[in-house]
């Protein structure tokens, strides 16, 4: 008998019919003898609707505490509906808000962090044979104020509960059947991964493969909670996200290819190359609250150097203005920028034990005549910046080069 935490997202509880289907599914697990804690999101679209109302009532600027007071109601509706549907099927069930469980958080309204979870009440209910349905996305601070965990926060509620209860698995049910080697809309041969490590998932997620809230993956890694991403209404094993197990012999070198089009590139040329120059350039950028991703400084010629970095595209204009001011102040020759770039990354823990991964990547891009503008590497990731119009070609070429393509199906 296992203890499983199951989290169902907004589309999975988006209508009464779907809530009925979720109840059927939970019932089946229960009949197998497993103890089940269910975490649900609000019905799809509901959180947006509530935020919109709040904006209307406040000239677009709702008081953070009051916003949490209101948006937390979306989940309060779905926990009650699911508990009713379960009870209606003869499955004893009880619903709790975050406050009732006591999911204690800090007081950072709209983006609170979980500090502690009381597991007593839940354990008592499980022992009494009840399914426990908990509202995702919300908690309560020391003063008793209702807080929420940031958009997509129900994933984190699920993982945090699984950690607190030492559950055997945290299952995240959603509208995709797992984590893929890359976006199937870009590469038709993309495959569902059976397994991926926390570290790899974090790299994939932060690079734009948005299946899970990033914080929930960090949390799961920290407390070693096995996480499984599954389709709510299709059969299948989904993708298991777990610790790196070095035992596994058939570990692929690369697990997936992530990409994003959200960045822009800025270059400052002819910078007098003196100690502290990187700080002089990037200090004002971070001072303007702009996050920098990749950074490249060229080898200097005649005591001047070039410096290139990337920022989120939304911050491009602001960063360009800051950089122009800096250029004047330090006597650099010129500043330029480019928003037509994309970042492509190959991710895999197998890189640690294999040489030649980077050159294989560069070879695949060279064969397609794709120019690499910037490169950065970490222990389990290699990223390149290329011209945006080659993005899809690059992802497809790399997917093939690293043998990630699914075998062609019959008749295709
Ligand atoms: N309902 C919240 C949101 O839409 C939390 C969640 O769904 O995870 O962001
Ligand atoms: Mg979600």
TrEMBL record:
Q: Which residues bind substrate?
A: 47, 75
Q: One short Pfam family name for this protein? A: ACT
For molecular function, the Gene Ontology terms on record are:
aspartate kinase activity; ATP binding
Sorted alphabetically, the keyword list is: Amino-acid biosynthesis, ATP-binding, Kinase, Lysine biosynthesis, Nucleotide-binding, Transferase
GO CC annotation terms, alphabetical: cytosol
Task: Please write the reaction equations for the catalytic activity of this protein.
Answer: L-aspartate + ATP = 4-phospho-L-aspartate + ADP
Under the heading PROSITE patterns, the entry gives: ACT, ASPARTOKINASE
The ACT domain extends over 266-340, 346-412
The pathway to which it is assigned is:
Amino-acid biosynthesis; L-lysine biosynthesis via DAP pathway; (S)-tetrahydrodipicolinate from L-aspartate: step 1/4; Amino-acid biosynthesis; L-threonine biosynthesis; L-threonine from L-aspartate: step 1/5; Amino-acid biosynthesis; L-methionine biosynthesis via de novo pathway; L-homoserine from L-aspartate: step 1/3
Q: What is its EC number?
A: 2.7.2.4
Tell me, which GO biological process terms does this entry list?
A: homoserine biosynthetic process; lysine biosynthetic process via diaminopimelate; threonine biosynthetic process
| Binding positions for ATP per the UniProt entry | 7-10, 174-175, 180, 185, 210-211
InterPro entries associated with the record: AceGlu_kinase-like_sf (IPR036393), ACT-like_dom_sf (IPR045865), ACT_Aspartokinase (IPR054352), ACT_dom (IPR002912), AKii-LysC-BS (IPR041740), Asp/Glu/Uridylate_kinase (IPR001048), Asp_kin_monofn (IPR005260), Asp_kinase (IPR001341)
Q: Which PANTHER family match?
A: ASPARTATE KINASE, ASPARTOKINASE
Q: Please give the family membership noted in the entry.
A: Belongs to the aspartokinase family.
In Swiss-Prot or TrEMBL terms, this protein is called Aspartokinase
Q: What species is given as this protein's source? A: Pseudomonas fluvialis
């Amino acid at each position: 008998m296992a203890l499983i935490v199951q989290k169902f997202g907004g589309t999975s509880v988006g209508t009464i019919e779907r809530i009925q289907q979720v109840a059927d599914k939970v019932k089946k697990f229960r009949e197998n003898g497993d103890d089940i804690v269910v975490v649900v999101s609000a019905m799809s679209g509901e959180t947006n609707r509530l935020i919109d109302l709040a904006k209307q009532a406040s000239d677009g600027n709702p008081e953070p505490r009051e916003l949490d007071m209101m948006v937390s109601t979306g989940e309060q509706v779905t926990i009650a509906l699911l508990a009713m549907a379960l009870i209606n099927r003869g499955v004893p069930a009880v619903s709790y808000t975050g406050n009732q469980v006591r999911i204690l958080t800090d007081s950072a309204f709209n983006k609170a962090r979980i500090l502690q979870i009381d597991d007593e009440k839940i354990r008592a209910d499980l022992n009494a044979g009840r399914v426990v349905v908990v509202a995702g996305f919300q908690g309560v601070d020391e003063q008793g104020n209702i807080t929420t965990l940031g958009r997509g926060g129900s994933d984190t509620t699920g993982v945090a509960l699984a950690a607190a209860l030492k559950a055997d698995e945290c299952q995240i049910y959603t509208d995709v059947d797992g984590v893929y080697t890359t976006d199937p809309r870009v590469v038709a041969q993309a495959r569902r991964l059976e397994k991926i490590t926390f570290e790899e998932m974090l790299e994939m997620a932060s690079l734009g493969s948005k299946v899970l809230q990033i914080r929930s993956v960090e949390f799961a890694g920290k407390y070693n909670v096995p996480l499984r991403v599954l389709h709510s209404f299709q059969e299948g094993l989904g993708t298991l996200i777990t610790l790196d197990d070095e035992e596994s012999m058939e570990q692929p070198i690369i697990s997936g290819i992530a990409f994003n089009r959200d960045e822009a590139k800025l270059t400052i040329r002819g910078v007098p190359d003196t100690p502290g120059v990187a700080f002089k350039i990037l200090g004002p950028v971070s001072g303007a609250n702009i996050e920098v991703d990749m950074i490249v400084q060229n080898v200097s010629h005649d005591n001047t150097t070039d410096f290139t970095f990337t920022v989120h595209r939304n911050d491009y204009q602001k960063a360009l203005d800051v950089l122009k001011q800096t250029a004047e102040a330090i006597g650099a020759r010129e500043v330029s920028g480019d928003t037509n770039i994309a970042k492509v990354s190959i991710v895999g823990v197998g890189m640690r034990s294999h040489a030649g991964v980077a050159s294989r990547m560069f070879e695949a891009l060279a064969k397609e005549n794709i120019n690499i503008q910037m490169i950065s590497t970490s222990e389990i990731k290699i990223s390149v910046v290329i011209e945006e119009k080659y993005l899809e070609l690059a992802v497809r070429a790399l997917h093939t080069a690293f043998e990630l393509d699914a075998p062609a199906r019959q008749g295709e």
